Amino acid sequence: MTTLLGSVSSRLRRPVGRKGLAPALLLVPATLILIAIIGWPLLQLVIVSFQQFGRAQVFGQAAPFVGFDNYTRVLGDPQFWQVLARSFLFCIVNVVVTMSLGTLVALLMTRLNKFFRTLVSVGLLLAWAMPALTAVIIWGWLFDTQFGVVNYLLSQVTGIDFTGHSWLIDPISFFAVAGVIITWQSVPFVAFTIYAGLTQVPDEVMEAAQLDGAGAVQRFRLIVFPYLKSIFLVVTILQVIWDLRVFTQIFALQGIGGIREQTSTLGVYIYQTSLGTGDYGAGGAIAVIMVIIMLAISIFYVRQTIKEEAL
Amino acid sequence: MTRFRLPIGGYIALAIAVAVMVLPLLWMLLASFKGQDEIYSLPIQWLPSSFGGANYQAAADAVPFGSFFLNSLITTVFGAGIKIVLGLMTAYALVFVEVPFRKFFFGLVIFALLVPQQIVIIPNYTLVASLGWLNTYQGIIVPGLASAFGTFLFRQHFLSLPISVLEAAALDGAGHWRRLWAFVVPMSTPTIAAVALVSVVTEWNEYLWPLLVIDRPNMMTLPIGLTLLQNTDGVTNWGVLMAGTVLVTLPILIVFFVMQKKIVAGLTAGAVTG
């Protein structure tokens, strides 16, 4: 079995037909765009991160090189470490919750008849289709201090008056709300992909295991999980990357009523340092550090893929 | 996989899960019909007193929704369309053509998948600004084209296609270009549908980038225009804002429903082969 990003080395297609300009024509446009949009800016970013680059430089003044100045400044700033720790913690919690819920929904979906499964798919699709900003606006309102549904229902159920309780002012509950929104939008992708994988687990194996007296948990741990290991790996890595670089949800929630200093994650922090404060050098340094972190997280997977490709 | 019967508790858990998924959307829809007094009322009024379109009218009056919609449509259709064509071409070359440095190109694609767009956003901004592309369609569209997700899914799917068909086509004298569009593409519709949907949703919902390159209201896309609606007056008029939100979400939901069946099949095909 191969996966979303996995390799199919044994079936690598041999070329057919004559050669000519075609290969170049097919590859050139996309490669040019990748180089122009990702390669070139990345190079710029690295350069800027070694320069003193402020607002004056944006308007054309020469940017002097300052060596590792920006990096020492960033790494010496306690706020950077707070942001980094916060981003990682938030990311880990989100990934664990998203993966568990997604797997659970996928497992449940395999046991539904066609009608209910379609119903669940449509629900998942709806949440997935919602623009991130729109989702934040709606959830932000559900959690509104004065007229939010959550406060109202909590007051009704517990008998304690929650009216006026602010969910966004306290960093912990700010991230709880942000986590709910992000999980809400990420579960569908995980659930669909894992469900797709589950349909590939052979019936005979599952039946045999059941006859041998394996319980549901055992069947999942001993059969389903090994079968889907590569899918779990890919989806987890994608989720880590996506959740670590989360921007819109945090940025928009801060707009509704969070304290920026206490709730910024890496993506938002880069934006604030660069465009907010105008310190593009430091912003570039943080961005470069973030790319290195991303690469480090996924290097294991990339190496494996490239290695298999080489066959 | 064997379909074991789901115990009643499972159905209840699922019902709750689906409810949590759908209720915020329902709440948005209901609120878009409520008047200001119905929204700012305690205890909470669940249903609007009437289903009139006053909020929709107010939203349309406050900001030029027509031009927002047109801008979103143009950037989405072109952005997603070009992205899919480029992805198909790249994936075809990576799978079916003996390209030199095939590994290098594939590495490039993986790398592109890893680098978060927002990290290259500042250099891209300077680039776009220096080209004089601020407040233009190409300014919104072009930087978004550097997406590797489609190339990945296409490549994965192409690897599962029967090579014999392409060999026969080659013997009949079909060139690469014709083989791609006349043979490979028709055999890949579910995957293309899945990638198309993901691309359309991403383009349509894109927030940060258009926010940076666009500051003229007549060039704004829907998500950016929505913030304009949010900021028009001091007190948030939730009814109007929700009406605007419905207008932003509706087209995507329609696309979703039209393509729903193909999409799940496409994800399955892309996720697991063999």
3D structure, described in words:
Chain B: Its main location: membrane. The complex is a heterodimer of chains A (about 300) and B (about 270). Helices cover about 75% and strands about 0% of the residues of chain A. Chain A starts with a strand and ends with a helix. Chain A is an all-alpha fold. Chain B is about 70% helix and about 0% strand. In chain B, α3 (about 55-60) packs across α14. Chain B has one domain (about 55-270): MetI-like (MetI-like fold, Orthogonal Bundle), CATH 1.10.3720. The longest helix of chain B has about 35 residues, at about 240-270. Chain B has helices at about 10-30, 35-40, 55-60, 65-95, 100-115, 120-130, 135-145, 150-160, 165-170, 175-185, 190-205, 210-215, 220-230, 240-270; one strand at about 270-274. The chains are: A mainly alpha (about 300), B mainly alpha (about 270). At the A-B interface, β1, α1, α4, α5 and α6 of A face α1, α4, α5, α6 and α8 of B.
